[in-house]
Amino acid sequence: MQTSPAAAPQATRAAREPELRVQGQAQCGEASAIPPLIQVSNLKKTYQTARGALNLFQGLNLQVEAGEMVAIVGQSGAGKSTLLHMLGALDTPSAGTVYCASTDVTKLTAREAAAFRNREIGYVWQFHYLLPEFSALENVAMPLLARGTPKRDALAAAAKWLSEVGLADRGDHRPGELSGGEQQRVALARALVNNPRLLLADEPTGDLDETTAGRVFDLIERLHASHGLTSILVTHNLELAGRCTRALRLESGQLGPLAYTPRTEDSGRQA
To answer: Taking the C-alpha atoms of 10, 16, 18 and 21 in order, what is their torsion angle to the nearest 10 degrees?
Structure first.
């Protein structure tokens, strides 16, 4: 895959990470003339319940520059997954705008939103959602087949991505024959097979043990850098959040910087 212009900031990312990890969003891309990949303005979401209106977001704002890796943490029920769904054109706000890749996704029809997701966004969830009756190779190829890509080409691209995630020899295995970490790596390959610009991950390591979670996150970091991705991850794991370009906390309907310093032994972890 050709590296996009968004990959350029990655060369200096390692040197800048210590100062960027826990700072607010204005630190990243202030002087850039390139518009942010994500621009959320005055976002509101209200649900009607038996006890009255539930206001999940209160004029929430978010800006994410191309090439960033942003973690969002918060208590259960704070709206982290709902926010991710809105960024990915899976849900619509009660008010406000959500621009992704210069497109106001809140204005898209259902058909347009589906095409936009297939073209621009890769998703990874806590549970892999692989189709049990299909092989790993076929699961990875599904987004391309849905787009109308010829089967031979779709399977070739899927094989390439299985190799990228270290599963070149597991293509003919069905999900039930794979470990939890392998299943999540297949899900990651499926999310990226369409070469999206944006990766959205909702607790991608939440169903894994600590060691496997660390390895899957290592892989996400590597693919994020090598393919010029912009990534937004929801996580409860503060150690992993601290490894992102920025870590934000969602609380009381608003986003703010997460004050967190990774433990010193993190730098010596095994990749």
So the answer is: -60
Which of the 8 DSSP states describes residue 269?
Answer: -
CA dist 104 → 97, 99, 195, 196, 217 (Å): 7, 4, 21, 17, 30
Q: Is the distance from CB of 231 to CB of 38 less than 8 angstroms?
A: no
- List, for residues 121-171, the tens digit of each pLDDT value: 999 988 888 999 999 999 999 999 998 999 999 999 999 999 999 999 999
Nearest Cα neighbor of 221 from 211, 233, 210 is 233
> In a 3-state reduction of DSSP, which class is residue 17?
helix
DSSP 220: H
Map out the domains of the chain with their CATH numbers.
5-256 (3.40.50.300)
Evaluate whether 197 touches 6 at the Cβ level (below 8 Å): yes
**DSSP tag of 27:** G
pLDDT at 33: 67
Count CB atoms within 10 A of the CB of residue 226: 13
